[in-house]
Structures are given as structure tokens and as C-alpha cells.
Amino acid sequence: MRRYRNEPRTGRAGFSVQLASANPDFFFHADLTLAWEEISPSPTHHDPQAVACDYVRGVAESVANKRPLNQAEIVEHRVNTLLGVPRDLKDEAVRIAWGHAQITADPADIADATAERRRQRESRLKTEEQEREIARIEAFRYRVLSDPGMALAHSFMNNPGSFDEGAITRIENLARKAAVYDPQNAWVAIAHILQEFISELSSDARTEMISALPWWFARYRKSEFTQRLRKEMELRNIPFHLDETEES
Fold first, then answer.
1. Domain end residue (candidates: 47, 75, 105)
2. How far is Cα 193 from Cα 204, in angstroms, rounded to an integer?
3. Which CATH number fits the domain that encloses residue 22?
4. Domain boundary among 79, 105, 131
5. Is the pTM of the predicted complex or chain greater than 0.85?
6. Residues near 97 by beta carbon (within 8 Å), at least 6 away in sequence
7. Which end of the chain has less Cβ packing within 10 Å, N or C?
8. DSSP per residue over 4-63, as a string?
9. Are 145 and 175 in contact (CB under 8 A)?
10. DSSP 3-state of 87
């Protein structure tokens, strides 16, 4: 048909494409049709039909890649909703009069994609469970290093028959060995040495040593430890001779 000079061009097109789905490496099949027309009688684009096809394909792709392969019908409805009204592409001076999509997916691909999605979910849940277990172990390790009594209580709760006279010794040995393999908690082992040293002192010697602690607290600007020490001694009715000049 002859086209008069300056008469806007119009046309229709149809083509098929593969659209990536939300399932990696799985695709929808799309049959796309459309009608287009130039907005201006003076041609602005050399190939307005290519512009129209590219736009329709882009709309279909933007919807498809957000949906799993078993939702072909939902993708089709959404694409046709977007393409069912005219759309002006002003930069190219092309109007998309209408577009239509027929979206399908191979049943075998749907089954494979669903199975793969299930495996990924199970793998993710397993990884999350492993991470929770690691976090639980790390927290327990920290508690063992800082308080061997926690390990003793845990052992007794889970294995009551294993609680005997040697249980405390085994837990203390565990704490010391753990400190060796965890340098960041090496001070825990040193704290046990100090605790053992204090336990062997006479009552008067302990009182004398404790009374000297506020001086060390003040030296390193940790006076709040003096107050905590005072409360602890008062709570346990342990004599506590504190020089007020040392506390200030």
C-alpha cells in the first residue's frame, strides 16, 4: 500500500522469545504480538518497529524474572495488563497501540525447577542450623572458659550418671586446655592460678590482700570495682578494711 509523504507509519509485529524466570537457568516461552504507530508525521527513528518490539520484550522480561517457573499464568496476566493500554515512547516518537503475550513453561522444566528450589531451601535451612549450632558451641565455650562451673552443670544435666568425684577436676582441666587453644581467653587460666593462690592464704592474709585491691583499682581508674568489691564483701559478711584515701 502506497504511503503518502509525511503520513505517520504504522505496523504490527509478532515474535517469540525465552524469558528468564526467578529460577536460575530456567525460562518461560513467550509469544508476543503488538501494534505500533508513529506519533509524528516526520520520522524520528529509522526502525520504529524495532523500538516497539524492544519495549514489549522489556516489559515481559521485567515481569518474568521476578516469578518462579510454575507461575506462567500469573506472568501472562501481568504482562497483558501492562501492554493492554497505549504507551507513548516520546523520545523515539513511537506509540505502542497495544501488546499481547502468551506465556508458557515446559512441564518437565517446572518439575526440575521446583525440585531445585526445594533443594536450595533445604540447603539454606541446613546452613542456618549449622550456624546456630556453631554460635551455641562458641557461646558455651566462652562460658566454660569464664566459668567452669557452667560446664559442670551442663555435664550433670545431660549425663547425671557421669557426675562423680573426678568431675570437677575434669572440668577444670578442660578449662585450662581450652585456654591454651584460645589465646584470647588465656587470662582465664591466669585467673584460675590467682584463685588457687588466694584459696591457700589464711583468712588474715586474704583480708590484707583484698584491702590492697582498691589501690590498684584507683591506679587504673577503675574505682567502680571498689564499690562492687565493698558490696560483695558486705553481702558475704567478710571483713573489709578500706582506707578512704585509697578509694578517692
1. 105
2. 20
3. 3.30.479.30
4. 105
5. no
6. 34, 35, 36, 37, 86
7. N
8. -TTPPPEEEEEEEEEEE-SSTT-EEEEEEEEEEEESSSS---S-HHHHHHHHHHHHHHHH
9. yes
10. strand
Whole-angstrom distance, CA of residue 214 vs CA of residue 91: 80
What are the cell numbers at 18?
A: 525465552
C-alpha cell at 34: 503488538
Full pLDDT tens readout for the chain, 248 residues: 455 556 788 999 999 999 999 999 999 999 999 999 998 766 677 899 999 999 999 999 999 999 999 999 999 999 999 999 999 998 888 999 999 999 999 999 999 999 988 998 999 999 999 999 988 888 777 766 566 556 656 665 566 555 555 655 665 666 566 555 555 555 666 666 777 777 777 777 777 777 778 887 887 788 888 888 888 888 877 766 655 444 44
Give the 3-state secondary structure of residue 151: helix
Which cell is 7 given? 503520513
Looking at residue 161, its amino acid is G
